Amino acid sequence: MSEFSLEALLGSRRGEDLDLWARTINPQFVRVLRTIGFDRTWASGEGAYLYDADGTRFLDLLGGFGMYGVGRNNPRIRAALVEALGLETPGMLALGTTLLPGLLAEELIAAAGGRIERCLFTSSGTESVESAIKLGRTATGRTRVLSAEHAFHGLTLGSLSANGNEEFTARFQPLLPGFDHVPFGDLDALEEQLRREDVALFLVEPVQGKGINLPPDGYLEGAQELCRRYGTLFCVDEVMTGFGRTGRMFAFQHLGLEPDLVTVAKTLSGGYVPSGALLMARSVHEAVFDSMPHAMSHGSTFAPNELAMAAGLATLHELREQRLVEQSARLGERLLELTRPLVDEFEVVRDVRGLGLAWAIEFGEPEGGGRRTYRMIERAQRGLFAQLVVVPLFTKRHILSQVAGHDMAVIRILPPLVLRDEDVEEFADALRSTIKSAQKMPRSLTKFALSAATAGVRGR
Question: Structural domains in the chain?
């Protein structure tokens, strides 16, 4: 009887990554990768870097859509997981408790502060949002849920119903009833809905992830006040922004907010084990789990598993010990300092914005040269110019970034917080030269753009 060896298995099938994925998982995704030149065979990752099979180093500014907050293959998180496996703890008990979940819940509650006194573990961001919807409706006795236009809250049915992006929702109608959207930043529109006093919760991202859209001054503070006035729970979705992404542990802490519900995931995983949580006020929790018969009203089989809890505890320790939250704030300011001048330097650049290490650049039709070609590309697919920057950044400068969303001429980055000063400078320099080339729109780039449009390339 042969022993199982993961290393031997991977070695025997090396180089089959794309073909195997296309044959068994998603052929259309592989088609997209090959169309835009992202069809690399990846060998390893470390911190803020990826290495392909040829040994070429790539600067990872996408970070697994923000999951690798403490870096890829963080050795201290890995050591904690190895230690956890060696301790042979009892693991999850269907009827019983273990110590690790309580320890992580205690730290998360302390980190959030304010009204937050209870924690419910989940296995993903969308599951955290689903929990907020379910528990929020039960706690208030109301059925309606409000969220913002252009919001992203996940792709399972409840979370999808709260999404404000038609490219995700259109093909999956009908969605759940009782979900409505208001413009992000419009307090009058929000109050018009809340004054009916039938909204269970207002679900809002402190920074909208799809375009790195920052809230107008006073908006989130006003939204919280309106929710209090009309008996609606104020729920802040920190799945993307939590754990230092914006230069504070949670983005709502920039404004001194005290939400009733906070959804978290991504970075909490340490980049290793799927993990999330719904943090909530005691009043919300006790309105749902209000008696012994209701003690198991909601849960998730795998959520409080020992490895996820160990990864979460090690991640919070890493954020503190390496001062990664402070580093995110500092490097975010440096990134804006280096890239904001691009607005004045290039007619095609409309805006540069960001908070901490959530950053975006937005493009628009130039006034002078290149206007006609820009319009032609935009007619093929709105926002396609951004691909003319993302693709050469990857293929020529070995920097991984992302178009922020469908029909958006916006590039966003969500890099690991372990980024270095020289990485920020490398990106700013590469971005400047790539925009300069793309603005000229040579025939090869124009041909690529039309090919990508034909293949239906979209931002995720």
Answer: 28-60+324-455 (3.90.1150.10), 76-321 (3.40.640.10)
